[in-house]
Amino acid sequence: MAASPFPAYISTRGSSPDVDFTAALLAGVAPDGGLYVPTAWPDLRGTSAVHGGSAALATAVLAPFVGTALPPEVLERAATRMAGQFQHPETTPLVELAPGMFVLELFHGPTAAFKDYAMQMVAVLAEAALSSRSERLLLVTATSGDTGAAAVRAFAGLDRVDLVVLHPLGRVSPVQRLQMTTTGAANVLNLAVRGDFDDCQRLVKGLLAHAGLTQGRRVSSVNSINWARLAGQIPYFASAGQSLGSEADRATYVVPTGNFGDAFAGWAGRKIGLPMGGLLAATNRNDALVRALETGVYERTQAVSTASVSMDVQAPSNFERLVFEASGRDSGLTRGLFEDFARKGRVTLPGDLLSALRREVSAVSVSETETTQEIARTYAEFGRVICPHTAVALHAARRLDRSAGPVVALSTAHPAKFPESVEAALGFTPERPQQLEGLEGRTEVFESVDPTLEAVLAAIG
Questions:
Q1: Which of 30, 178, 401, 435 could form a Cys-Cys staple with 34, CB 3.0–4.6 A?
Q2: What fold does the segment set 94-112+230-426 form as a domain?
Q3: Residue 418: is its pLDDT beyond 80?
Q4: Where are the domains of the chain?
Q5: Over 50: is that where the pLDDT of 2 sits?
Q6: Quick check: 107 and 412 in contact, CB under 8 A?
Q7: Is 344 an annotated catalytic residue?
Q8: Which of 203, 201, 143 is nearest to 176 (CA)?
């Protein structure tokens, strides 16, 4: 497929110059503090009919976003690497549990979580972009568990990348922690922050804005605030549509969400013409998004620890992208709201914006009790063991009317990553897949730090 003309990216806050795909990839956050989005959304209607397997489909979906910023063979190599790292021949298989009720399995990658899909491709794209510019990259990422593990697996050992991973101390599962801290790679620094995920995310934004880190290198993030990372999640919505066939345009996708990245990837898929119907974001007790859509007040409160630890987020960064789009791309409004939110932790959404947001996406919260009950119910009904995040999605999915069209719940992680939660619900621990074997007994390397920018900068050195 020939590359599309140069696609430009703009900031949601409107005060930064347009950039190409590689600049957005290597910057992460725009200089004005906003998040990058395409200046115009491509039309990819018909892409889900692409044949040739998951690598070909990923290439077809992402090519218009990359455009001429990188040679076509780089994207093809990235997509081929991604597909080759997954343990299932279909990469992200769609499994029907009951008539009209599906799960999209996203956990067959090297760290057994959905973040592998995009991260494996972004590592190839970033290395190619750095090589072409003879540059070096300091990559910083906040994680509630899965992002850090996937980033470590994708970027460990790369010549031009130094990776710093911040995770909340004691708030990731033991398996997730071991995946991050036992790599032994010289270019990886793991920092355990004495705080929650929102503290980690705040520190990453502080690092990205710190001029002292940019001497002789670029600084970026590989969280879903990075457009390339988020865009890399769009192709599996195309894959699901391919599997659903004629029913695809009536399907409602239920996305378990913390930082709203995967949900916004679904929104973007629908925006570019992939056959999709509704979009439901399912949160755990950390329900800032749900409260915002219900009351019009977007308020940050202290994140609460739950079984679905990767969703313990009370300030979802990608909500800014949705606000920008729902407001008719009003960068002034977006900038004002999120600068106020950063200062005060609370903003009231204008009535017309709130109505527009409700038209774009729905959101529900699922309790801890309901999560545990869903793990047990899914096993009793289907003989299927699921992780707590998948349980949040499935519980929310059961509330939907399947007579209106199929319901697809995203299954974002293998249950073996959360053995304590599964055992509490089922009385036994799930069997580990091959990619999670042998973690215990390895030497862990990480440093505990206070949730201050000064402490993190001192650790980075």
A1: 30
A2: Rossmann fold (3.40.50)
A3: yes
A4: 94-112+230-426
A5: no
A6: yes
A7: no
A8: 143
